[in-house]
Amino acid sequence: MKESKFDRKIDDIGLKEGIAKLTPEKIQQTFQKFMDSEAGAKLRVYHETCVRCGMCSEACHFFVSHDGDPSYSPVGKVTQTMNVLINKKGRVDAEFVYKCAQIAYTECNLCRRCMHYCPLGIDTGYIMSMVRRFCHLLGVTPQYIQDTAHSHSATFNQMWVKDDEWPDALLWQEEEARDEFPNLRIPLDVVGADIMYSVIGPEPKFRTQLIYQAAAILHEAGVNWTMPSLPGWDNSDMAMYTGDFEMMGRLKRAHFECAQNLKVKKVVMGECGHAFRSVYDMGNRWCGWDNYPVEVVHSIEFFAYLLRTGMIKMKTKFPGPVTIHDPCNIIRGRGLMDELRFVAHEIAEEVIEMTPNREYNYCCCAGGGVINCGPPFKNVRVKGNKAKAIQLRGVKEKGVSTVISPCHNCHGGLEDIIHGYELGMDLKFLGDIIYEHMEKTKAVE
Amino acid sequence: MNKLYTCIACAAIATLLCFLPAISQEDVMTIGGPDAFYGFTDPQRPVVMFTHTQHMDLEMIDGSCLPCHHDGRDEEGNFTEGDMVPCKDCHDEAAKGEMSLLNAYHKQCIDCHEQAEAGPITCGECHVKTEFYGMPLGNDENQGESQE
Amino acid sequence: MHDIYNFVVGPLAWFGWGVFILGAIYKLVYAYNKFITKDATSAHYMSWKFGLRSIGAWLIPFFTTGWKNNPLVTAVTFVFHICLILVPIFLSAHAILWQQFFGIEFFWTLPDNVADIMTLLVIAACVFFAVRRLAYPRVKFITEAKDWWVLLLVVSPFITGYLAYHQIFNYQFMIVLHVITGLAWLALIPFSRLSHMLFALFTRAYIGSEFGGVRKVKDW
Q1: A441, C4, C136, C208: most buried by Cβ count inside 10 Å?
Q2: Measured between CB atoms, does A260 come within 8 Å of chain C?
Q3: Same domain, A48 and A162
Q4: Eight-class DSSP state of C107
Q5: How far is B38 from chain C (nearest CA, A)?
Q6: 0.95 cut: is pTM over it?
Q7: Is the CB of residue B108 less than 8 Å away from at least one CB of chain C?
Q8: Residues pairing with B70 in the sheet
Q9: C216: contact with A, CB 8 A cutoff
């Protein structure tokens, strides 16, 4: 391959400052060390055996959205990054590392849709996360996502929520909710509760109503639950996406220690995608656990359970048709598509599906830490997901104006797409609709 | 008396007829093809030309019938001399394994040629193609034979 | 010419086979060791059930998402690989060599006229792949020099084999060239893109295990 030119460089202070500290020797030594100590058979075999058929291209929403620009195809991104690194044994310049970082952090959502397309089963998402790992080792990471990773290291949550602000946010929501449910509590640190409810850092920071809603649903269902007041409450894990695997492991350990100290039977987590990935797929492995040490139940599964057992009954259903956006980390990552549909059909009058859907869905283009790379890369996400906009417009023409998606990142990404392409649609969490339309027996009129 | 002469003449003719094949042995034999005297009526590969006298005259054979015309082996594993019959009478064309006619030909010819360091050893040197979908290739049908 | 022929089917053939077999063993053992040491957290999830399920699914043409979305490539790929594997092994002329050098007797060989067509199919498929590499931007962009070398490596024994079989041009020269290109093909399997022949089943089984066992979805 000719050295392809990279004409879409975006200014990011984290990347710029990052490469300013690099020397060719440092890059090469770091790469050598990375290959010797971390990269195993997977990376090497993938590098050797990929036959460059290009069949994965159309799997990628970036490729589709850029009208078939080959530099956005999964294998195209690998060819421009890891492939060159391995071929040149790390003898690349700092500018190249910038390019690697920009591609790996902002032009791949690690959604693994391409896995349905590769005959050889080459895990492009893994390769890109290894590029990120290498960039992290060099200290070349986009500023905004690195900031969340710093927050993780300093506070064990993603959003610099201070130790006193967290219980404060919970008490605030409790107080708000008691206007509606007089006896509602958000029980803090109840040892031996059945369920520990855990959320991601952004919930107390700027989606606080989600905590309210969750508390209302758990209260109405009469569940014996608790929330931890100490660090470890945050289940999110941006360190996983920056390539800071050490921190990823520490975060997961802290989270599960929190649950184990409270001796809960299960952890129920909010409607988040990447946090789920970090417990069943990545964080657990870094810690050397086969699976999570305390069972983690995703909101989808938990709502399905509440609705099946009748612990929550729907008074009304959401009027008008809705569509479902399947979040990669929960659906392609954990096969919850049927549970999601069960819940969606229980709570909405009509569900109109987009195609492709279920485990073949197009990513929201925000996941994999891309949205966390912040404003400099917002247009990358919006332009890079015309495919989703076309899908959404398709169902919009069938009369759908509400999109259900049980993932914070998907909400962030889809919101920008809906605005960017002027689709005029609403986004809902499952919790939004359940809270709005459930029977509230314990509420005051 | 006439009868006696007639009888003798008949006997002589009969005897002659009996030996005729041996005496009138066509010098260039074609292995494979419609007459199938040496096997393979419908061969996949081009027929093979074999010149009997040319082989008989070779120094290493020196007129002996062995090792080609053999029938079993002695204690030392060498072939014992057999009847002057076509290979296919013992080596079955339809058979598989070492005794098959296909193997017998290939082994007999190639092994001997290897040993003599003369004569054809690769496929196309014996199975000579003369045309490619009707186009003459200019290959001499007997080119294998002419190599010494 | 026979001296050269004897050399290429003798010592050179042993060398070619040796490099292929030893190289393949080395590559597989090396990868296995790396896999269980460096990728232990992946190796842990290997599963016969899901691995075989995935291999099975991808062996059926037009069954998986990838195959369905690329029908022409799928058709050509399947025909190409079937011919590519069957012809070198079951060609009647090769069966003679199997018998001659390894004492292996086949109970079935490809009829020559069928093998002839299959050879042409392989060559045609290679032309298709080459055209695709040149004309299709998504493939052109990712094509490296070694992708061209490997294509040349694969097609050359088939071209020389075809010419030798039909005795076009100088037969003796062509047969020697055929053996040399065939051996090069064999010997370079472990050390080129062709190593997917060694690893494809394992990469497939691994990702099948991940998707089936951990992610609980289909990987096709």
Answers
A1: C208
A2: no
A3: no
A4: S
A5: 20
A6: no
A7: no
A8: B81
A9: yes
Rounded to whole angstroms, how far apart are CA atoms C40 and A40? 9
Query: Number of structural domains, chain A?
Result: 3
Co-location of A247 and A221 in the same domain: yes
Distance, CA of C118 to CA of A108 (rounded, Å): 41
Closest CA to C155 of C184, C135, C133: C184
Residue type at C82? I
**Residue among A63, A71, A117 minimizing CB distance to C66:** A117
CA distance linking residue C203 with residue A42, whole number of Å:
8
Tens-digit pLDDT profile for chain C (220 aa)? 788 999 999 999 999 999 999 999 999 999 999 999 999 999 999 999 999 999 999 999 999 999 999 999 999 999 999 999 999 999 989 988 888 888 888 888 899 999 999 999 999 999 999 999 999 999 999 999 999 999 999 999 999 999 999 999 899 999 999 999 999 999 999 999 999 999 999 999 999 999 999 999 999 9
Establish if C47 touches chain A: CB-CB under 8 angstroms: no
Q: Which helix (H) or strand (E) holds B31?
A: strand B28-31
Which of C100, C112, C168 is opposite residue B132, by nearest beta carbon?
Answer: C168
A370-to-A200, A243, A385 alpha-carbon distances in Å? 17, 13, 12
Closest CA to A187 of A173, A205, A201: A173
The ipTM of this complex is: 0.94
Domain-terminating residue out of A263, A287, A306: A306
Domain C2-214 CATH assignment equals 3.30.300.230: no
Q: Which structural domain range is residue A226 located in?
A: 154-306
As assigned by CATH, the class of the B26-146 domain is alpha beta
Cα–Cα distance measured from residue A369 to residue A106, given in angstroms and rounded to the nearest whole number: 8
Which residue of C42, C136, C200 is in closest CB contact with A120?
C200
Interface touch A49/C31, C-beta < 8 Å: no
